[in-house]
Amino acid sequence: MNEEKEKRLTENADLAAPTKVQEEKVDSENVQDDDNKKTGEKVVSGYALKFNEPSKDLGGFVEVITPEALKDTDLSDVCLLIGHDFTQILGRTKANTLKLEVDEVGLRFEATLPDTSYANDIYENIVAGNVDSMSFGMMLGDEADEFTKNDDGKVIRTIKNIQSLFDVSIVTIPAYDSTDLQVNTRSFDLYKQTQTQKEEDTMKKQLLNNQQTETRSFEDYIRSQGQVRDGLTTVNADVVIPKDVIGEVFDLKRQTYNLAQYATVKEVSNAQGKYPIATNQNEATLATKEELALIADVGVEMFKSVKYKVATRAGKIALSNEVVEDTVVNIVEEVKSQLQQLVTNTDNQNIMAKLKAFTKVAATGLDDIKKVNNVTLDPALNKTAIVNQDTFNYLDTLKDNDGRYILQPDVTAASGYSLFGNPVVVVSNKLFATPKVGTYPMIIGDSKQAIFVARRNQVTTQWQQFDYYSQGLAVIVRNDYQVIDSEAARYVEITPTPAG
Q1: Of 120, 110, 231, 122, nearest to 168 (Cα)?
Q2: Chain segment 233-291, per-residue pLDDT in tens
Q3: Are 13 and 46 in contact (CB under 8 A)?
Q4: In 10 A of CB 209, how many CB atoms?
Q5: Residues 214 and 323 grouped into a single domain
Q6: Cα-based distances in Å from 419 to 37, 279, 436, 496
């Protein structure tokens, strides 16, 4: 929904200001008393807005308002103002001094003016023809506008839903200035982005079609032993062999994940230091204090510090300029992407090493895992079960006594399953190795409270090696990995008891 107020100018608003006495004089020749003219009500009328009339250019587009735009508009409390100034109010629908009516032309208004100096002044200017324009302030509703382009290439914004009308104003300057015009162009910006994307997609599709046509034409040339040359480029009667159509580097399918998202990651400003951590105060209590007695010290440590010292980890690769120049794809950007994967791999290995160092628990079945989950670990922890492929396969085949699978579907979990209400994260056997055949490893606990990653910085560099006609690329990261709370997780090795 567009929640920003917009203002518009309505020129040719049919603004008129006959008095009630003057109207009666037309209908009856018997009304001759000048005193009646002096005491007669001053009424102004006209159109606050008109349907299907294009506006002036609003910054790249013109605008029209459809009759349906006012179908559900809130007109219960609309003010008639001078120049959108709420200190110069001329009428109000709530006070029945302003009447609004939707007809086939637009939104017609009629207002009985108060006996104030500014009202009398604007009335006289309307009678004299000095003022003839209106403006209005509105808020658009849901799916309020639509952008189209006509045959002349002009962009048209069609207003289809005005949620509410704040005010209608008599304006003295018939121009689109900061007072009379205020347009929210977010929907227009989105339209331009969409159009640009469509044009780019069309160009890419056309280029691909041309490349495919060139390739097919070359195949026809080969099959016809040089007789068919339609669609081919020739130089000095020789056929130019088309380039292969290559859009991107082919990636082998591998599972990608970053365990850092399950840890607490903080940017640090120093190469080494301490990070303060609030300790668990579940068992701490306050001592009873006698009247006027000294307050006793809290007998527990409120904070502890996690020490860190970042280490520099780096890697580089050299690319010959022949490869860079002769490859259709942007091979340099592809290498940078692969180097970033090495950073992720580094995070994964260091975080997994810390998790496997937590207190190990031997389990023979689900009851032992439940005990860790229900008793060993604090119930306040946001627990997650990190398993490898072997453990996931073992758990995925287990059923309870009623024949229901132990793992339950969970759309919020990375694996799509949960164990005892804890999201399950599956990593590869290469990262989280199975200790021996028949034993299944698992990390269960709050990994964000368990692992702290201190990030100092990460730099990707690129340089030219002129002697070798090549380019060098390198990535350098400075991180450290530490345990925050040794009681936040457990490393469980499940060795199922043989049946019988």
Answers
A1: 110
A2: 554 555 444 444 344 455 555 566 788 888 888 888 888 888 777 666 566 777 888 88
A3: yes
A4: 10
A5: no
A6: 87, 28, 23, 17
- CATH at 440: 3.90.1690
How far is it, in rounded angstroms, from Cα 103 to Cα 97?
Answer: 19
- 59's enclosing H/E stretch is none
Q: For residue 462, give the amino acid letter.
A: Q
Q: Where are the beta strands (DSSP E) in 12-84?
A: 43-50, 62-65, 79-82
Range of the domain at 19: 5-181
Asked if residue 410 and residue 481 are part of one domain, the reply reads yes
Assess contact for 473 and 339: CB atoms under 8 A: yes
Whether 183 shows a pLDDT value over 80: the answer reads no
Using CA atoms, how far apart are residues 35 and 197, in angstroms rounded to an integer? 70
pTM, two decimals, is: 0.48
CA–CA distances in Å: residue 345 to residues 165, 258, 259, 333, 414: 58, 8, 9, 19, 18
419-463 pLDDT per residue, tens = 999 999 999 999 999 999 999 999 999 999 899 999 888 777 776
Question: What total number of domains does the chain contain?
Answer: 3
In a domain, 187, yes or no: no
Same domain, 406 and 280: yes
CA atoms of 106 and 70, how far apart (whole Å): 9
* Residue in the structure block whose two tokens are 């040089």: 226
Residues 147, 225 share a domain:
no
Q: Is the dihedral of CA 384, 385, 388, 393 positive or negative?
A: negative
How distant, in Å, are the alpha carbons of 47, 141, 221, 428 from that of 69?
A: 15, 9, 61, 57
At residue 23, does pLDDT exceed 60? no
Residues 353-365 as b or e (16 or more Cβ within 10 Å = b): ebbeebeebebee
The C-alpha R_g of the chain, in whole angstroms, comes to 38
